[in-house]
Amino acid sequence: MLSINNIKSGTYITFRGDPFVVMKHDFVKMGRGKGVMRATIKNLKTGKILEESFKGQEKVEQADIKHSKANYLYKEDSNYYFMDNESYDQFFITEEQIGDKKEFLFENMEAEVLNYNNEPINIEIPNKIKLKVKQSPPGIRGDTAQGSVTKKVILENDYVVDTPLFIKEGDLLEINTETGKYVGKVNTGK
């Protein structure tokens, strides 16, 4: 059991019978009373985000999450299929569980699998990935006069992202998978 003093961002807890990860936490001391931990927690099975308060001597159970590696294989209906890197067993995780990370999955990509009670419940992918620009409209001189200093480009996985005007077709870009935003152009050494 964890006291509220041990709850930090990234901690896995069991709350109302489901596994959650603490996304943000803030400890607030109320005058003479006991402190309160306000936390933003995300359900690892459903992806639902909750705002919760844990009071004083309240304790929560630490979720027993095991990590393993797997490669993404394919999508069928609303299921995403993976193959475990050690046992070579295939399993799927639903689109609802994966959430927005689905935009950045590509064939043979390695992902970290979160297992709860020996059942795969979700994945983690790298925070930043590199993708090539498939389509890029020309950056037109004078576009900045109207306040727009970005343009929309289509990446190799068909994801659309806002980039600076100088980005062109074939460029390799770094994308933040948590926000879905352009981070920078990758220098390929040419």
Q: What's the quick description here?
A:
This protein has one helix at residues 95-98, and strands at residues 2-3, 12-15, 18-29, 35-43, 49-55, 59-62, 65-76, 79-84, 90-94, 110-116, 119-124, 128-135, 150-155, 160-164, 172-176, 181-185. The chain is mainly β and 190 residues long.
Please tell me what the overall shape is: flat
CATH architecture of the largest domain: Roll
Reading side by side through the largest sheet, how are the strands ordered? 1-6-2-3-4-5
Distance between the termini: 55 Å
Which H/E pattern describes the elements?
EEEEEEEEEHEEEEEEE
**How much helix is in the residues?**
under 10%
Task: Characterise this structure.
- The chain is mostly beta strands.
- The protein folds into 3 domains: 2-62, SH3 type barrels (Roll); 65-124, Beta Barrel (OB fold (Dihydrolipoamide Acetyltransferase, E2P)); 128-185, Nucleic acid-binding proteins (OB fold (Dihydrolipoamide Acetyltransferase, E2P), Beta Barrel).
- Helices cover 2% and strands 54% of the residues.
- The chain is built from 1 helix and 16 strands.
- The strands form 3 sheets. It has a 6-stranded antiparallel beta sheet, with no helix packed on it.
- Strand 15 and strand 16 (181-185) form a beta hairpin.
- The longest helix has 4 residues, at 95-98.
- It is flat.
- 17% of the residues are buried.
